[in-house]
Amino acid sequence: MCYVWFMPLRLPHLSATARDIKKPTDALDYEIAREMAGALGRLGSALERTLRTLVEFDAAHPPGGPIPRAIRAKRQDLVAEASRALWHFVVQREACGLRDSRQVLRDYAVPAEVRDRMGAFP
């Protein structure tokens, strides 16, 4: 007969929940949850950054009068980039079980044109 003895992981650098791991699959679940949360944070920061860039661009180039083609093209690129960042963030939130995106749109003050292009790729 072969007996297998399993001792729960004791990782001093992790939180109390990680130290209370009872099964090997608990450690994997914990690491997956950590990575999902980290990815969500990184994507949220990227969304904030792209939206801030768009707002700063709009402040530097107020509407009115003829707008050069290069400026319009640059703005469209910024809108597309922000839309992509929003899409990635919303998809990651849904993967984490957070299904309602309306609060995100309000909290991040996402412009309608960015929201409308979310998920639309050229």
Element layout with pairings:
Blueprint: H1 16-19, H2 24-60, H3 69-95, H4 102-107, H5 112-117
Task: Describe this structure as you would to a colleague.
With 122 residues, the protein is an all-alpha fold. The chain has a domain at 46-122. The chain has five helices and no strands. α2 packs antiparallel against α3. The longest helix has 37 residues, at 24-60. The protein starts with 15 loop residues before the first helix and ends in a 5-residue tail after the last helix. Mean pLDDT is 83; it is low at 1-14.
Task: Summarize this structure briefly.
The chain has 122 residues and is mainly alpha-helical.
Using the alpha-carbon principal axes, give the shape: elongated
Question: Per DSSP, what share of the residues sits in E-state strands of 2 or more residues?
Answer: under 5%
Separation, N- and C-terminal Cα atoms: 63 Å
Computed over alpha carbons, the radius of gyration is: 22 Å
Using brief descriptors, characterize the structure shown.
single chain; 122 residues; mainly alpha; elongated
